[in-house]
Automatic annotation (TrEMBL):
<dbReference type="GO" id="GO:0048500">
    <property type="term" value="C:signal recognition particle"/>
</dbReference>
<keyword id="KW-0547">Nucleotide-binding</keyword>
<keyword id="KW-0687">Ribonucleoprotein</keyword>
<dbReference type="InterPro" id="IPR004780">
    <property type="entry name" value="SRP"/>
</dbReference>
<dbReference type="Pfam" id="PF02978">
    <property type="entry name" value="SRP_SPB"/>
</dbReference>
<dbReference type="GO" id="GO:0008312">
    <property type="term" value="F:7S RNA binding"/>
</dbReference>
<keyword id="KW-0378">Hydrolase</keyword>
<dbReference type="InterPro" id="IPR042101">
    <property type="entry name" value="SRP54_N_sf"/>
</dbReference>
<keyword id="KW-0342">GTP-binding</keyword>
<dbReference type="InterPro" id="IPR000897">
    <property type="entry name" value="SRP54_GTPase_dom"/>
</dbReference>
<dbReference type="GO" id="GO:0003924">
    <property type="term" value="F:GTPase activity"/>
</dbReference>
<dbReference type="InterPro" id="IPR022941">
    <property type="entry name" value="SRP54"/>
</dbReference>
<feature type="domain" description="SRP54-type proteins GTP-binding">
    <location>
        <begin position="267"/>
        <end position="280"/>
    </location>
</feature>
<dbReference type="Pfam" id="PF00448">
    <property type="entry name" value="SRP54"/>
</dbReference>
<keyword id="KW-0733">Signal recognition particle</keyword>
<comment type="similarity">
    <text>Belongs to the GTP-binding SRP family. SRP54 subfamily.</text>
</comment>
<dbReference type="InterPro" id="IPR027417">
    <property type="entry name" value="P-loop_NTPase"/>
</dbReference>
Length: 439
């Protein structure tokens, strides 16, 4: 996410390297580089200018402490200003009313339907009874798509395939929700490839008729300034409450994320980082600023882990590790859990400094494939008792998984090393921390 921008900003701060203090001249050079980086990232020009003017002014006015270098100070000020620019505090969606109604709007292909499914899953996790409503009366495929997503996340989908009137469908859906004890209704509307009058009228009419407690505008972040302009056009017409930025996993520039709030004056509320139903995050301006500046985002990483890993299961696993009973079945399980947390590249970017360190390495989600194939080719007994894996069996596994005998041996060796490490850690824990390791 935003790799190009992070690298360019890093370069901008390096112009201050070796400088003992902040001066008009050196801070102006850095501010100019920051501005260039932002404009290259497709940040609106006016926004880029105003934020870098602010950064410069604040830097000149702030006394440099002895312990902080001018470069570090500039990173800190930029972090503060980017956070402010993106809205400061996180903004919740409003779930007022019984049922509360959320209207989803946006262009076709922006990721509206996918987001509707994700939002339904997100709200369902808070133990609220959700109803999804398919209101795209032009594309029957969109109705089917929502049904599939609804099934995936276990949320009922309301449809009226023969009705071509979105206002009617929405009203009927809300009535249905009232009768069936649904507490939140999410309405996925029809999009078009570009802004057109009929679409705007249609959404405005639905909004007027059903008075949603929250209207969210979904936009593809990869379209940069176009995303900002489309958001502005929609907002002028339907006055939405918040923005959902999608496809951030493919966005290396970040212009929309940075400027949309300043231009449209509406907060970003969610970000979507993949096609899977759990690739959804609440938007925190401060954490996003950290990620843009390559400072990582450990808080979000931990939150994602908490969503994916079950506490009881983790406890059991810990016990197994302690008793050195961890086997390939558990290993496979762990890989599958990690994959649920999102794309590996994205996860690496959340660890401070890691994104920068690993930017040239080919990290992709296929990295787990050979490992999984090898484990899948083992029998149940072999997975539970890796000591059974003789030369013959290893050969069979290599053939079965389409890997080489070296790959199988490597995996077994790594697994063995891991078990040894666990064993020595357990011993250490038994004896307490050695005195030379205490601080
Ligand atoms: P709609 O026409 O606005 O309802 O858009 P869809 O929900 O059908 O999404 C269009 C395409 O974008 C689909 O192929 C989705 O799988 C994909 N998509 C949606 N959100 C994301 C995302 O956050 N990341 C990625 N990589 N793809 C996404």
């Amino acid at each position: 996410m935003f790799d190009n921008l992070s690298q360019k900003l890093d370069k901008a701060f390096k112009t201050l390297k070796g400088q003992g203090r902040i001066t008009e001249i050196n801070v102006a050079t850095t501010a100019k580089e920051i501005r260039k980086a932002l404009i290259d990232a497709d940040v609106n020009y006016k926004v880029a200018k105003s934020v870098t003017d602010d950064i410069k002014e604040i830097a000149l006015g702030r006394e440099v402490l002895i312990s902080v270098s001018p470069g570090q100070l500039l990173v800190k000020i930029t972090h503060e200003e980017l956070t402010k620019l993106m809205g400061g505090e996180k903004q919740e969606i409003s779930l007022k009313g019984d049922p509360s109604v959320i209207l989803i709007a946006g262009l076709q292909g922006s990721g509206k339907t996918t987001f509707s499914g994700k939002l339904a899953a997100y709200i369902k996790k808070q133990n609220r009874n959700v109803l999804l409503v398919a209101c795209d009366v032009y594309r029957p495929a969109a109705i089917d798509q929502l049904k599939v997503l609804g099934e995936q996340v276990g949320v009922e989908v309301y449809t009226e395939p023969d009705n071509k009137k979105p206002v009617e469908i929405s009203k009927n859906a809300i009535e249905y929700a009232k009768k069936n004890n649904k507490k939140v209704v999410i309405i996925d509307t029809a999009g078009r490839l570009a802004i057109d009058e009929q679409m705007m009228n249609e959404i405005a009419e639905v909004k007027k008729a059903i008075q949603p407690s929250e209207t969210l505008f979904v936009v593809d972040s990869m379209t940069g300034q176009d995303a900002v302009n489309t958001a502005k056009a929609f907002n002028d017409r339907i006055n939405f409450d918040g923005v959902v930025l999608t496809k951030l996993d493919g966005d290396t520039r970040g212009g929309a994320a940075i400027s949309i709030r300043a231009v449209v004056e509406k907060p970003i509320k969610f970000i979507s980082t993949g096609e899977k139903m759990d690739a959804l995050d609440v938007f925190y301006p401060e954490r996003m600023a950290s990620r843009i500046l390559g400072m990582g985002d450990v808080v979000s990483l931990v939150e994602r882990a908490q969503q994916v890993f079950d506490e009881e299961e983790t406890k059991k696993l810990n016990q197994k590790l302690r008793k050195n009973q961890f086997n390939f079945e558990d290993f496979l399980n762990q890989i599958q859990q990690i994959k649920k947390m999102g794309s590996i590249k994205d996860l690496v970017g959340m660890i401070p400094g890691m994104g920068k360190m690993m930017k040239d390495l080919p990290i992709d989600d296929d990295a787990f494939k050979p490992i999984e194939a090898i484990i899948f080719s083992m029998t149940k007994e072999e997975r539970e008792n890796p000591d059974l894996l003789s030369g013959n069996r290893r050969n069979r596994i290599a053939k079965g998984s389409g890997t080489s005998i070296q790959q199988v041996n490597n995996l077994l060796k790594q697994f063995e090393d891991m078990r040894k490490m666990m064993k020595s850690m357990n011993k250490m824990q038994g004896k307490g921390i050695p005195p030379n390791m205490k601080n």
